[in-house]
Each structure stands twice: as C-alpha cells, then as structure tokens.
Amino acid sequence: MHDEKLPVFGTVKLALLWGVFVVRRHWLIILIFALPLVAISFAERVVVEQEQVASWHFGLLSLAQWVLLSLLSIVLALVTHNEVLRGPAGLNVQTLGWGAGRVVGYAVDSLVLMLFGALVIFPLIFAVMGVTSLLRQFAPPLAPDALIILLILGAWLAAVFVSLRLMLRLPSRALGQPIKWREAWRLGRGNSVRLLGIHAILFFAMVATAVVVMAIQYLASMLGFADLDGETLTVQSRVPIQGQWSFIANATVSLAGGSIFSVWTAVFALLGNVLILAELVFFFALWSLVYAELERIQDARTPQTVGSRFYFDPNEPPEDF
User: Fold this and answer.
1) DSSP string, 247-305
2) Which long-range contacts (CB under 8 A, 24 or more apart) does 45-50 make?
3) Counting C-beta atoms within 10 Å of the first and last residue's C-beta, which end of the chain has fewer, N or C?
4) Is 247:305 a contact under the CB 8 Å cutoff?
5) What is the pLDDT of residues 206-264, one digit of tens each?
C-alpha cells in the first residue's frame, strides 16, 4: 500500500481561495499595517533628497522598516494561521495569545529557520568554491562557470528543502501548540519535492500578480496621470524565502510634481505595501493548509483522534466564499 502524498495543485488552489478570503475579511488590518510602512518610505525619501548620499539616518530608517515589517508580518501570520486552522480570527487574545509570548515565539522560530538555512547553504557554498578553485588551478576545463552556477543553485535548493520541512512548525506555533522541530521534520517526510513544487507554483503566481500591478502603474503614467520628466518612485513586491525577504519585482514609476505628485506617490506607495502584506497572507495560508494536510496524512498512517488540533476541516474553503 502506497503512502498518501500531499496534493500539489489542489493545495495551491485552496491556498489561493483561503488567501483571497483572508485578505477580504481582514482588508482593514492590512491597510492599517501598510500605512506606517508608507510613512517610513516617505521619511527615507526625504532623507535621501536632503542628504543626497546614504547616511546613518537612512540606515536607521531602513532597519526600522525591516523590524516593523517583520513584526506586522508575524501578527498577520497569526491571524491567517488561526483563520485557516481554527475559524474566525482577529487582533484578540484567542489569536495573539496572552502577552507577547506567541508573537515572540513565532519570531524566534523564524530566526531559527534562518539559522538552519544558513548552516546548510554556507558550508555547501564554501565547499563548492573550494572544489572549483582546485579544479580551475589543476584542471580548468572541468570547472566551467555553468557548472559552478549549478552547484551553487544546488546548495541553495538544499537549504530550501531543509527550511520548507522545518517551516511546518510555524502554523502550530500560531495555534499556541508548537510541535517539536523533530516532529516538524518528520511531518514532511516523503513530500519534500512536493513542498518545493507547491511553493514554486505560488511564488510564480505572486510574480505574475506583481507584473500586472507594474503594468497598471506603467499604463497610469502613459495615460498622463504621471509626468515622465518628474520624480520616480520604486514599488517593490516581496515574498518570504527561507525566512528571509526576497524581492520579486521592482517597478519604477515616474510621477508628476506639485499636489498631484503627493497624491500619486502616496497611492503607489500604499498599493505596493498592501501588495506585500497581501502576498504574505497567501503564503501563510499555504503553510497552514500544508500543515493540516500532512497532519491528516500522518494520522491516517498512525490512527489517532483526528481533529485534535482543529475545530473544523481546514481543507474546506470558507462557506461564504
């Protein structure tokens, strides 16, 4: 009898459904979270225009933006995980827990994931560099640039494999019932390639969304909403890869001066930050569904009381979707 496997396209489809549902239900939270990020972006812009060169002021603002984005992302993750795995969630004790323990725990687990990824990828990259250095010295034809790139890509994929398996702990942390790292690793047994494929499909779906937004912004400039000779604004779209922020797309949009400049700068900056947070919701929903499905598969392998962690079957889309 073959072990049941994690469905790839079905999981992605459900993640998209849940992501849309959570964004619709909690759009006000996402909008409010985006506002301080926009404010910091404007402050960075002012610093650059006044000082002309990067300074410690700009570095401090960038650090503040990263910390704030990380904190808001964790809160959004707790809301999304609980929404998918338990039911209606919000900025309340049932979702966030008493005090800062659940938020801090999620942050610590995320840092541990980054550490695990680093412990895998850096030794492998150093090994690749050492081997290719020897080959170039003694046998140059055996060390073409293409081979080096493939080896480094292999090291990165190894780190991704490790991170995706261990990432299964995060939804349980959001529920206030964290599983052990060893259990998280065992939960993904036999589904590592499928986990990679699921994340790759959702990643490219988010890239396509970012491209559409960029096209809309470009069309706005072509229709005269922006002056091509005016200032520019870069809107960035990001997704979490191995617990780190990775840029998917950068869109540079020219904007007109005066009051119109202020309005459109704010609109594009707000749109960019809302998009960042909305994209994260889809990934948090995906992790929740993967965790729930793998828990169900494991229960089927070793019969236990099904549903001990969840109030309802998280594989079912919301009734009012």
Assistant:
1) EEEEEEEEE-SHHHHHHHHHHHHHHHHHHHHHHHHHHHHHHHHHHHHHHHHHHHHS---
2) none
3) N
4) no
5) 888 888 877 877 776 676 554 434 444 444 444 454 444 444 444 444 444 444 445 77
